[in-house]
Amino acid sequence: MSSGWDDRIKSTRTRIEAACLETFEARGFDQVSVEELAIIAGVGRRTFFRYFPAKADAVFGELDDQLARFRAELADAPAGGDPAVHVAAALLCVNSYRNEEFATLARRMELIARVPALQAHAARRFSSFRQVASDFARQRAAALGTGSALYAAAVGTLSVAAVEVGYDAWVADGGASDPRPYLRAALDLVLGGLVLGGPGGVRALG
Amino acid sequence: MSSGWDDRIKSTRTRIEAACLETFEARGFDQVSVEELAIIAGVGRRTFFRYFPAKADAVFGELDDQLARFRAELADAPAGGDPAVHVAAALLCVNSYRNEEFATLARRMELIARVPALQAHAARRFSSFRQVASDFARQRAAALGTGSALYAAAVGTLSVAAVEVGYDAWVADGGASDPRPYLRAALDLVLGGLVLGGPGGVRALG
DNA sequence: GCGACGATGGCACGCGGTGTCATCGTCTGA
DNA sequence: TCAGACGATGACACCGCGTGCCATCGTCGC
Fold first, then answer.
1. A146 or B25, greater pLDDT
2. Do A119 and B116 touch (CB under 8 A)?
3. Which residues of A touch B123 (CB under 8 A)?
């Protein structure tokens, strides 16, 4: 511990994250082993897994904080109004970042969008959001005397999916600006319906 | 090869699938190793991976056939009309099963819905459907002079997500009847919008 | 009867993820 | 100042998934 102490001002976790982001971009997620990542980050292999339960988790940020904020945001939503709209608003709120964070966020999201293994992992990581949103929608819809199990599940799954769509579009556009307009556009699409030219009718099929 | 020959009237692939379904339901996906599954199915471990590239793939049926049918269905879609509606119709068509298949399909879908590892795998397996649907939507929307990259991506991602929602609801209801009404309900939701009481307005947010 | 060929399975390897234990620096109380 | 507690670390061993390689065997055509 003689030299290298000042390097550790950046905590171990941050160092691992940075090493992963860098190396994944340069050589591809599947082409780098955890052993190598650990060496690059100056850490033992075992320590890597202490900070991130899976290799893929090093790319996803602090989702636990986000989930807590999401719950809180939904709990604070006014009693009236459409459940799906509340969920969309909460998702937008949770996905607020400072300008300095845009660049890193874009790198994360681009990796997630491009690497199949990370997309698969995203399904796991985002499932809690789906669950929370679905529970919220079920309760609120029941209070309004409407809704069904399918409706509640749809609100959770489709809203979260819309966020992913929004981020993909944001990344494809360079990911330099605030991503929220993209998320909002995707959420508006899921709230208002995919049918072109505005709400053409729920009976669009057949 | 003395005895056991008649058992092999069911092809190796089918035998492995059956063994997996059975054992996963009984003991849980993560609790059974491929080695054990191979023994149960009466094949070598190596043979298992020759038939299914991953342990999780034994639960998903013949998706390649479905994907081909999906492409064909979209190609045959009439020139006019809403792209998302065409996609929804094609998805419904591709998910047509005979009555005798309902039971097995329900068992598969229940496993997929309940096991996180299988949900994650579903994201990989269904990504080709997303891609095909998005490409279709992009081209058709461009031909209509409308649409955007985000719109096309949304059509693919959200439509496929709606199918998953529909299957979840179907499974939750027992999975005894035709699943298509559930898929149709979920697809109608994504086509017409999540906002309760019908299309209330695309500007629902804020 | 003899190669060709496809299906099979054994073997070894790399890698992801986990449990266990030893080590080391720091912090605290005597 | 020293002893012990505690958290962070890392070394090691282990299991399971997935893959490449090669030997084997049954079948088919010649």
1. B25
2. no
3. 119-120, 122-123
